[in-house]
Amino acid sequence: MNVLFLCTGNSCRSILAEATFNHLAPTGWEAMSAGSHPTGQVHPRSLALLAREGISVDGYFSKAWDNLPHTPDVVVTVCASAAGETCPAYLGPAIRTHWGVEDPAHATGTDDEIDAAFDAAYRILRTRIEAFLALPLTDLKNDPTRLKAELDRIGDLFP
């Protein structure tokens, strides 16, 4: 099953989610990421955080959704619409859910404060991904209505 993590710039949150999901996922489940307006580069703090967590950063880059390697079965938007950010709408056939996370690329303050914003975004995404992967995936793979309900619940339960 292919999961697309989608945000606006594809430089922080969606990259963190893609790399983390691929690091933790069972065989047969793969994540991709994309942006509606990709920045063209992965934020260096995202790469540094992933490396500190022992997650490979090889092959990750900022990209648009118009050239994905696979058609997604699940699309997870990670934009923070509460912060006035417009969530992109993927128009292909897929189960859709929203897991809003504040964009650490917009964090200001000291280096420690900015690092803390990246860490907070990563921890939220990792917690949600771990909850996703703890679901009975074999059963849910064939029950899209139940899978969507579970994914929506995960987005609501782990702020």
Automatic annotation (TrEMBL):
It comes from Orrella marina. Residues 1-135 form the Phosphotyrosine protein phosphatase I domain. Signal peptide: none annotated. PANTHER family: ARSENATE REDUCTASE. GO terms for biological process: response to arsenic-containing substance. This is Low molecular weight phosphatase family protein. It holds the Pfam family LMWPc. Keywords: Arsenical resistance. It comes from the Bacteria.
